[in-house]
């Protein structure tokens, strides 16, 4: 019998192939695959969902929030084009799974979560797993993390009506932002925004996705 991680990677590979037309990504990158294999997803999933921990699906984590589908985590990560030197901002820590994947690939990860209980348990979990290049904060991610800006990459893991202005300002020239932007009342388009030489954002819509809403300030 195949181990759960191998089975999950196979499913993610198929999802990459099925979406290549719109994402522009032909296949799962080896370094993202390695990160998905290394991060123990069962540590991020509540006891009740343990039997599904390595399934290619989103799962509930309490507080009406979810752990994202592994394919979507892989896709968003790969779209960020991270270098090992990258400093990354994440908005929406949740259980910290995406955070850990980023921490495997980048130099430093700054992550913000608005629900204090989730932020605290993610912080503890990431510390226990040895991710000492992760910095956590409780608060409204609309404001970003100005003291640590600019960032090489910004990832937002909740759906927003538009790209928050502060996050745009905190992206380094040639930096990349991946964010689900609302297309109707309950789904979003995953958008890749690249900051060009003149400081403007070039936006590309890559896939229809469904995330929980980004709450708090509308900007
Ligand atoms: N990244 C997670 C998925 C997070 S779900 C994973 O790896 O599975 C989205 C998270 O965004 C939720 O925990 C939610 O509480 C948080 N969130 C929503 N609005 C936010 C805001 N304005 N600032 C920070 N976090 C926010």
TrEMBL record:
Biological processes, Gene Ontology terms: methylation; protein repair
UniProt GO cellular component terms: cytoplasm
Pfam families: PCMT (PF01135)
GO molecular function: protein-L-isoaspartate (D-aspartate) O-methyltransferase activity
Keywords: Cytoplasm, Methyltransferase, S-adenosyl-L-methionine, Transferase
SUPFAM superfamilies: S-adenosyl-L-methionine-dependent methyltransferases
Keyword Metal-binding carried by entry: no
Principal localisation: cytoplasm
Catalytic activity: [protein]-L-isoaspartate + S-adenosyl-L-methionine = [protein]-L-isoaspartate alpha-methyl ester + S-adenosyl-L-homocysteine
E.C. designation(s): 2.1.1.77
Alphabetized InterPro entries for the sequence: PCMT, SAM-dependent_MTases_sf
Residues annotated as the enzyme's active site: 68
UniProt similarity note: Belongs to the methyltransferase superfamily. L-isoaspartyl/D-aspartyl protein methyltransferase family.
Function summary: Catalyzes the methyl esterification of L-isoaspartyl residues in peptides and proteins that result from spontaneous decomposition of normal L-aspartyl and L-asparaginyl residues. It plays a role in the repair and/or degradation of damaged proteins.
Protein name, entry field: Protein-L-isoaspartate O-methyltransferase
Organism: Ectothiorhodospira marina
């Amino acid at each position: 019998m195949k181990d759960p991680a191998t089975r999950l990677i196979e499913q993610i590979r198929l999802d990459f192939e099925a979406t290549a037309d719109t994402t522009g990504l032909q296949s799962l990158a080896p370094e993202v695959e390695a990160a998905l294999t290394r991060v123990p997803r069962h540590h991020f999933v509540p006891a009740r969902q343990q039997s599904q921990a390595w399934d290619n699906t989103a799962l509930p984590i309490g507080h009406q929030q979810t752990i994202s589908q592994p394919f979507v985590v892989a896709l968003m990560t790969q779209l960020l084009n991270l270098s090992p030197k990258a400093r990354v901002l994440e908005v929406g820590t949740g259980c910290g799974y995406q955070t850990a994947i980023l921490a495997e690939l980048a130099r430093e990860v700054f992550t913000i979560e608005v629900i204090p209980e989730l932020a605290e348990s993610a912080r503890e979990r990431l510390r226990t797993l040895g991710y000492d290049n992760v910095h956590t904060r409780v608060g409204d991610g609309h404001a970003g993390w100005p003291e640590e800006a600019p960032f090489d990459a910004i990832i937002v893991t909740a759906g927003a009506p538009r790209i928050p202005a502060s996050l745009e300002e905190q992206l380094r020239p040639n930096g990349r932002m991946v964010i689900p932007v609302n297309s109707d009342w309950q789904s979003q388009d995953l958008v890749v925004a690249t900051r060009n030489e003149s400081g403007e954002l070039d936006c590309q819509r890559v896939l229809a996705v469904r995330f929980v809403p980004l709450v708090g300030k509308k900007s």
